């Protein structure tokens, strides 16, 4: 089944709203799945959103606030009355409710929290910073005690079951709420009914500290194919769970962050943020880029008299600097992604450098030869082809070295290679390209004029 | 718990192998979790791998072949005897076994398949192309019939349970093996024991056609937070399931593909492939880049006489072309990632274009002013600052237009924007930058010399 065609339903909802036929609008929305409900809801004007939301089933309102983009959800929640908001928050997954409370005006958040029935469940989640494992977790309600029997455990689940978070693993606690084991629902239903949980549980449980980076949590879940990862404090008390839907979100967020940073956009954000926010994310980079471009400008200035004598040299600037710049970007991309996925580590540094030098040499021989041929075909002085081709070859090797070494050094300095490397690599390939090219031209000046 | 320190265990395994103490090596490996086993195994020399693998429990051998990188697993499998290989394949998850058979020599694959006990389960999986939903699925053993009672269903699961794939949803079939509903394990244990499955199942099941792209399957699973996605043929017969571990793999693969393509690397591959393969993935791009750089070369050639008269102009080439090129890359990055995550679509095209033009204008005003100031400070002729600043402003707007329009047009033409756009955008920003800059310089030539 393909995702539903939101546009069609949206037209019908709009028509119902235009006729103030609330029941029909509500029926149309409630027939959708949560992510589709949220997509449709986001496309309505605020006045319609405010009319519609309180008329929906509480569960659907909660789903919509969970599924909307963060900023959008905060706006909608900000326009709700305190009691309406509190009732919806009570219905939301605890981690989503905590996130939403963190995104709205702190005074309103305090009021809503005071009006909530399940505030006690949310408060501990508010203590952890965003982007840590603790900030990602939800409260773990479906836990078992190690001394229960299988039958007692199943009866316990039947009581708390329908209200709790989706369940795949049941974490097992001792008297002091310390995490001591895990049982899967499947193990539970296949075990003899009078066995004790502590005799069927597995004790070797992958867990994460609440203060760990969310990326570490995602990496553990993805590496060990976990659907839920328990979050503990330093004394191994179970604080909460990170569930698989968060894993996908974190993976996409981290991939987007890498892509943005490699593309020179500082902060991961949705594509449709306002111009001022976009500028904050892009201008600093361009200003830095301007500063580094001045290094190449200085190189070019120092060769001013050569350029004045052989102006045709400028023709191959885009080739000598640009094409090698692309080669540097290629090397950088492979190394940064490898570091990011854990497929490369610092101890592979020398091997990676060696490989990139070989690739640069091979690329340089081919592209350098092509450049020489093109220069000759275009009818410049015969030495131009030699100079441009040789400069390309040298700069391709420089590009390989820079593309491999820069991100490795950044990683060693604990700076995100995706953030810091692209500008350094392009600065190096530009400056080296102009130096090799104009340096060689100076040596062979007699043959060029 | 942090991932285990493989290095330490590896040293001890190496020592055990050096002393031919197989039992100790086996014990050390078997104490690890599968992904750690595979990492350690991959670091051993082939001779040690071949000695060790047949000595491990069948289940551990199967885990290692499942977790190794594709190429590595194919190599190890290629060195195994047919019967050893067949026994391990029988123990592997069906989708992983099918993938491995597809990666090894076809004759050997046929022999191994003939020697397998569960070949009939694998054969249907071999029919689907890689990178389709069918190519990703595993066989679905844990299904229920709509006419079963809850008690019968639980008894059925207890019988087939331990052997089957991890279970979160139980898909419900009719007499003709058509997918008619879904029940969660949790619903099953909370339902009265004499209810019929068809009365408790949900009938609105998200599903995917076997021929659909794997990206579509991943998008459905990620959008609707699914742990398993049923794969059907055109008559809605259940063919298999895609499980959540594949989702994470596909998401990472697709993100890597986007990152590589934006970085000018044609094919997604691990960072440590050989130089010849790396060249196949990079050289065509560089050759194409060389061809497009010749457009800028032509622009520069046509302004040769201006450059000869005012060689200092060359000083700002890296600024006028380079910094705007970075701005184009920023716009491109945001639009390509937005299209890739489904946050942007073609109907947002004009709005995205408008936003990028505004951003380009704002960036251009700031960076253009900085360029003017720098040019004046560096002591060029007064008009140089004006020309460089104005060219930067104009090219920033061009970069915004190119960065938004090019990927949108590619998307409309059904070409992957991540693949085709970067080279076009940089060609446009280069050629426009030189044209604006040298064109303005020609107009103001009298004030520059």
Report what the structure shows.
- Two copies of one chain form a homodimer.
- Chain A is mainly α.
- Chain A folds into three domains: 6-127, MgtE N-terminal fold, CATH 1.25.60; 143-252, CBS-domain; 275-448, SLC41 divalent cation transporters, integral membrane domain (Tetracycline Repressor, domain 2, Orthogonal Bundle).
- Helices cover 67% and strands 6% of the residues of chain A.
- The first copy, chain A, has 23 helices and six strands.
- In chain A, the strands form two sheets. A three-stranded mixed β-sheet of chain A has the order 1-2-3. The first copy, chain A, has a three-stranded mixed β-sheet with strand order 4-5-6.
- In chain A, helix 6 (70-79) crosses helix 8.
- The longest helix of chain A has 31 residues, at 382-412.
- The termini of chain A are far apart.
- The mean pLDDT of chain A is 90.
- Chains A and B meet through helix 12, helix 13, helix 15, helix 16 and helix 17 of A and helix 12, helix 13, helix 15, helix 16 and helix 17 of B.
